[in-house]
Write a structure and sequence with these properties.
The protein is an alpha+beta fold and about 475 residues long. The protein has a domain at about 5-45. The chain is built from 12 helices and 17 strands.
């Protein structure tokens, strides 16, 4: 037994015994208990605070580690180029010289070259997400396709044509929902609508600038918590996707084979990322639109974080689920707290572009100037404060404490702080003893350094989350 737990266990036993003796000897009774035997006590499940942190935190440099290219693949028409790196796939899609349909087809064919096991890897993951969203589903997948096809019809035409061409090429003309190890057209389309139709994201984000950074320039951090899959499939699929289209260019940081955005930075330096904001409201897709594709549009069209945020807030009542979107550029960081219609009607929630000066939920404190934090709930005062449950409050407070621990941070020091917790603390046994910031579901940790313009990503390896975190330099925005 761990000595700290042993001491705690015995302390509890002693306290209980003293109370028992006090009770039995009250009111003038004079019994003695010389032969009293301490009852057996189960081992404590409490963990000392010191046990939740790694013993020797890694002292990181400011710079990320360059990655190694293992192989390269290119479509016959040059519309898609993929480098298989050691930790991720580096994908370039050429919209400047090719139509979206050509890009979609080339993307699919090149993915199958670069990732020969793509069908066998992804199809089980698609069904894991389907069964999570439709737990009573048996062999009738019509409700799934009804939802996905409805949402696909709401997309900008250029996006849908690209997805259609991609799914057609990837499937090889196979249709229907069948768990047979081959991705059909419908399964390929569904894979690209997981955030809106099935939902998997949690996440957190942090931004520091001014007096809190060593350079005075902004540093943006995003942790992507995601369903990694029963076999950690998504950890085999990390991708950095460069969409080249002149002044509409952006780089998505997500997973190979995706057309939507969960984290991205455009050529103007605007970074944006989706975060869940669970409201407990019933799901609705009729009359709604897709926030991950709206985010793609905003990143193509707008040049500042505030413009992107205002666009998302304006359209938020018509999204499928309430969500947070953290948005940053070199001048400011915001959170679009996006409340859907039913959330507004049932709980009085509202959509707002929150910044560092926005008053916070009662009893929620942020003690650090020149910094900003987002977890999986709205934080604006009066904005459905029931969302701020234990898990969200604990992580928000941890960030607050960590950032309070130093006057200012280098990028390297910030990486050390973000990786100081042990990633597995009983959760793998179903015993969530500790609410981690970085946890067994963390797929990627992204850092944008606006001083250098460089981006680093810690990609969770195929073996799953680890305390030995490597930050890979993926280039400049």
């Amino acid at each position: 037994m761990n000595i700290k737990n042993y001491i705690k266990t015995k302390a509890v036993a002693v306290a209980a015994s003293v109370m028992l003796v006090s009770t039995l000897t009250a009111c003038g009774q004079s019994e003695t208990y010389d032969g009293f035997v301490f009852p057996d006590q189960p081992e404590s499940v409490l963990a000392a605070v010191s046990d939740t942190y790694v013993e020797n935190p890694i002292k990181y440099d400011d710079d990320g580690i360059p990655d190694k290219c293992l192989a390269e693949f290119e479509s016959a028409d040059g519309a898609c180029h993929i480098k298989k790196m050691e930790h991720y796939y580096d994908v370039t899609l050429d919209y400047e010289n090719h139509a979206g349909t050509e890009v979609g087809k080339a993307y699919a064919s090149t993915v199958l070259e670069a990732f020969p096991d793509f069908h066998e890897t992804i199809e089980p993951y698609v069904y894991e997400n389907i069964y999570f969203a439709f737990p009573a589903l048996t062999d009738d997948f019509d409700p799934v396709w009804e939802r996905v096809s409805y949402l696909s019809a709401t997309l900008q035409e250029e996006y849908w044509q690209e997805i259609d061409a991609y799914a057609t090429e990837l499937s090889g003309g196979v249709h229907g929902f069948n768990e047979d190890g081959h991705i059909s057209y419908e399964e390929a389309v569904t894979f690209n609508f997981i955030p809106e139709a099935l939902r998997s994201t949690a996440c957190s984000a942090l931004s520091l600038w001014g007096s809190k950074t060593a350079t005075g320039d902004r540093v943006m951090v995003r942790l992507l918590d995601w369903d990694l899959g029963g076999d950690n499939q998504m950890c085999k699929m990390h991708a950095v996707i460069h969409a080249k289209e002149g002044d509409r260019s952006f780089t998505g940081i997500s997973f190979i084979g995706w057309e939507n955005l969960v984290s991205a930075i455009n050529d103007d330096g605007v970074f944006a990322a989706l975060l869940d904001a669970g409201s407990g409201e019933p799901y609705s897709y009729e009359g709604r639109r897709c926030y991950s594709y709206d985010l793609r549009y905003a990143m193509e069209e707008f040049t500042t974080a505030e413009e992107v945020g205002n666009f998302m807030v304006e359209n938020s009542p018509n999204y499928t689920w309430s969500n947070n979107i953290v948005i940053s550029d070199e001048n400011g960081t915001y959170c679009a707290e996006n409340a859907v219609k039913q959330h507004q009607e049932n709980k009085g929630a509202f959509s707002i572009l929150r910044d560092a000066d926005t008053p916070l939920v009662d009893n929620l404190n942020w003690d650090n100037p020149d910094s900003f934090c987002v977890v999986n709930s709205f934080a604006t005062k009066g904005n459905d404060e029931s969302m701020y449950q234990v898990g969200n409050a604990v992580r928000f407070n941890k960030y607050n404490d960590w950032i309070s621990s130093k006057d200012k941070f280098t990028v390297g020091e910030l990486k050390t702080v973000l990786t100081q917790e042990k990633v597995n603390q009983g959760q793998e046994n179903g015993e969530a003893k500790v609410e981690n910031v970085r946890n067994p579901g963390t797929a990627q940790m992204i850092i944008v350094d606006y001083h250098t313009g460089r981006i680093q990503v810690a990609f969770t390896p195929e073996t799953g989350p680890t305390d030995d975190v490597v930050f890979t330099d993926i280039g400049e925005y």
